[in-house]
Amino acid sequence: QIQLAESGGGWVQAGGSLRLACAASDNTFRYYTMTWFRQAPGKEREEREFVAGISWANDNTPYAASVKGRFTISRDNAKNTLYLQMNNLKPEDTAVYYCAASRRPNVGLTLATYDWWGQGTQVTVSS
Question: Which residue has the higher pLDDT, 92 or 60?
Answer without folding.
Answer: 92
